[in-house]
Amino acid sequence: MPAPTLPLPVGAIAFAFAPRKDWPTEPVAVAFRLRGLLGKHLKQMHCLLDAATSPCEGCRFQPSCVYGSGFESPRNLAIPGFGRVGGAPRLWSLHVDRLGQQWKATLWLIGRELERARAWHEAIASLPLAPGWMPPEEVSPETLRWRSATPVRLRIAGRNPSADELAQALAATIARKARMIAALHGVAAPMSRLEVEALVPHGWLDVERFSFRHGRVERLGGWMLDVRWPDDVGDWQPWLTLMRMVGVGRQVAFGLGRFICLDAAGAQRSA
């Protein structure tokens, strides 16, 4: 099947790496560590002040800073049609997988984040993890059966949804994020209602993360899900592919909210 036509340009940087010996071995926990290390290097390379002590929030250089406006999520940002929002959606996601004895990461960049691809590439090259470049992944055709690869954190009416509310929360979260990203790029997103045909929850999964900023272990958990979209999702088809790449729900920058596609035979396919 041909690669899908997406509403925004997409790029991928893929690389193999060797985690440090003191890192955990669970892929989501490794993604936490890799994300933190990548952010540290990106800030050291591009912060115009003191990278170790200067906060991004309130910094006058943040709008033009690769780290402050790309890796971090700008706060109190005005988005057309939404007004001021607490945080803008990130336009990148980091997928980490273990392939036998090898570890692989894929950094997906969408829309205007592609303009920072060189900065991301240089930050990855500087990592003390012996990164080795791999062929970039291609965008595969979307199927209408999804399975969560990492926990999915959703909200409804300001709280965690119950199992009965997951389908509504998932559809609403994806639709809102798609429309916000579209507004940031001046393109149109579907205004039709997005609905889930069937959703099967497979329980709640907690993953531990050590926060070096706060000096404590934090738990980031979410639902593990199987999702079936309607056979005719109309204009939402390419947006579902895009949303799957950038992640669904909260804490996607930490590797949560990642879905894979299942083909007709039930086989797993990555993005």
Q: Could you characterize what this model shows?
A:
Helix content is 24%, strand content 28%. The protein has helices at 27-46, 66-71, 117-125, 166-185, 236-246; strands spanning 10-17, 75-79, 83-87, 92-99, 102-110, 132-134, 145-148, 198-211, 216-228, 259-262, 268-269. Strands 8-9-7-10-11 form a 5-stranded antiparallel sheet, covered by helices on one side. Strands 4-5-1-6 form a 4-stranded antiparallel sheet, with helices on both faces. A two-stranded antiparallel ribbon has the order 2-3. Helix 1 (27-46) packs across helix 3. The mean pLDDT is 87.
Query: How are helices and strands ordered from N to C?
Result: EHHEEEEHEEHEEHEE
Beta strands, count: 11
Radius of gyration: 18 Å
Q: Helix share of residues? A: 10-25%
Q: Give the DSSP E fraction (strand runs of 2 or more residues).
A: 25-35%
Q: Which structural class do you get from the secondary structure elements? A: alpha+beta
Distance between the termini: 14 Å
- What kind of sheet is the major sheet? 5 strands, antiparallel
Strand order of the largest sheet: 8-9-7-10-11
Number of helices: 5
Which regions contain 5 or more consecutive residues with pLDDT less than 50?
Answer: none
What's the overall geometry?
globular
Average pLDDT, rounded to a whole number, is: 87
